[in-house]
Design a protein that fits this description.
- The strands form two sheets. The chain has an eight-stranded mixed sheet with strand order 2-3-1-4-8-7-5-6.
- By secondary structure, it is α/β, with parallel strands linked by helices.
- A hairpin with a 3-residue loop joins strand 2 and strand 3.
- It contains eleven helices and 15 strands.
- The mean pLDDT is 93.
- It starts with 7 loop residues before the first strand and ends with a helix.
- It has two domains: 8-159, VC0802-like (2-Layer Sandwich), CATH 3.30.2130.30; 181-217 and 255-390, Rossmann fold.
- 45% of the residues are buried.
- Helix 2 packs parallel to helix 7 and helix 5 packs across helix 6 (208-217).
- It is elongated.
- The structure holds S-adenosylmethionine.
- S-adenosylmethionine (SAM) is lined by residues 175, 177-179, 202-203, 205-206, 208-209, 265-267, 270, 293-294, 310-312.
- The site of S-adenosylmethionine has 19 residues, from helix 6.
Length: 394
């Protein structure tokens, strides 16, 4: 098997509940999916496809290229079968590599132990073939191998990403309670935003949603910022092919004809951080920043755009009781100022969301730092009568 020529299974992992957004991204790149779950999308492809997926995907965590699957009842069997893999065709003799993975085998109660057995198998095979000893550790900035061992079924992959793709690398200062970049991208891709109408983001905090929206509209994928992937440290890595993929990616970015993006927060320091992050992402000029209460955010009239808010929800910031009034006011703001738009509120407190007082058209489930969250969608039709008809209390 030549991993730089052969077609294989490619598993693209993501954080839980981002699978739908990830699958739509993968399809938009022209791939047919073989399997879709809330945290994995599978396709068939080559290492060239791994280059493209790593460069472009906003909602993914890792791109895993399948090497071999086998039955392994225990760690010794895992070691023996993993040692039979032609690692000398995959890894360089003096490589540094790390192991990532998921282990659920009843004979192994510590996944670290399984990883060590796999590492030993690779090192012993490489020593036998090259008389040299590759080094290994926890750093994900060089080559990486992924183990998925469920019960007695082990699957071995080349982890082509290394460091998680979920961090997009533009954020210089996180601010307080920031959304993770991959989650922010998934929220945006789950809205009805057409990427041409206005995107309004009151309560912007460090600006993650507005910045990701600008990146989506400008067709600037995360690969624009990232210089290192695990696939670059594999044997027979073809730098020219990668650079060709990167050049095609850069040629597709847009600088003109972008939609209006407004980003506001009551905290001047939050807006300052959002500005710094937008500059680092190269989208500062595409965003209008405002320091104001969310109710005073500029709503560009007559646009079929979206208004997206991520208010505090009492887990990390603020107290739930105080926030009830804020959520009621968000509902009033939607009704009074945002007609014609589609409104979205992302929150981890479903009780607080009831205070919005509008009937949601959709409730899209997400997870953020192990908290179950919802993205609520509200259609804010023009004409007060229609909005009134939607009100929950009517
Ligand atoms: C959960 S944070 C938003 C985090 C943001 N999504 C990010 O990724 O950084 C909520 C933000 O709402 C802002 N905020 C709270 N009350 C506000 C109000 N009345 N008007 C405008 N912004 C407000 C806070 O300053 C805070 O930055």
């Amino acid at each position: 098997m030549n991993i730089f020529q052969d077609t294989s299974r490619i598993l693209i992992s993501c954080q839980k509940m981002l699978g739908t957004a990830l699958a739509s991204e993968v399809k938009a790149l022209g791939y047919e999916t073989v399997n879709e779950t809330p945290s994995v999308v599978e396709i068939q492809g080559t290492m060239d496809d791994c280059f493209i997926l790593n460069l472009h995907l906003r909602t993914a965590s890792q791109v895993l290229y399948h090497i071999r699957s086998f039955h392994a009842e225990n760690a010794e069997e895992l070691y023996q079968k993993a040692r039979n893999i032609y690692w000398e065709d995959i890894l360089l003799p003096d490589v540094y590599f790390s192991i990532t993975g998921y282990v659920n085998n009843e004979t192994v109660n510590n996944s670290m132990y399984a990883n060590v057995k796999l590492k030993d198998a690779i090192v012993d095979r490489m020593r036998e073939k090259f008389n040299s000893r590759p080094s290994s550790g926890n750093m994900l900035d060089k080559a990486a191998v992924h183990l998925h061992w469920n019960r007695s079924y082990a699957e071995i992959f080349v982890n082509t990403s290394g460091e998680s793709l979920a961090r997009h690398g533009f954020r210089k200062i996180p601010g307080t309670a920031p959304l993770q970049e991959a989650l922010a991208a998934a929220i945006i891709l789950s809205t009805k935003w057409d990427q041409a109408s206005a995107f309004i983001n009151p309560m912007c905090g460090s600006g993650t949603l507005a910045i990701e929206a600008a990146l989506v509209a400008a067709n600037i994928p995360p690969g624009y910022f990232r210089k290192n992937y695990a696939f670059m440290h594999l044997k027979n890595y073809n730098e020219k092919k990668y650079q060709d993929c990167r050049k095609r990616m850069l040629a597709q970015t847009k600088k003109e004809g972008l939609p209006q993006i407004v980003c506001s927060d009551i905290s001047s320091s939050a807006v300052h951080i959002a500005k710094l992050n937008a500059r680092a992402a190269g989208v500062y000029d595409f965003i209008k920043f405002e320091v104001c209460d969310f109710r005073d955010t500029t709503i560009i009239p007559d646009q079929a755009g979206v208004v997206v808010l991520n208010p505090e929800y009492g887990e990390r910031l603020g107290e739930v009781e105080e926030l009830e009034g804020v959520y009621t006011e968000i509902g009033d703001f939607f009704k009074k100022h945002c007609t014609g738009y589609t409104g979205y509120v992302f929150s981890g407190n479903l009780d607080l969301l009831k205070n919005i007082g509008l009937k949601p058209k959709r409730k899209i489930p997400f997870m953020s730092a192990k908290i179950e969250c919802k993205l609520m969608e509200y259609e804010l039709f023009s004409g007060s009568k229609k909005i009134k008809e939607q009100s929950v209390q009517d």
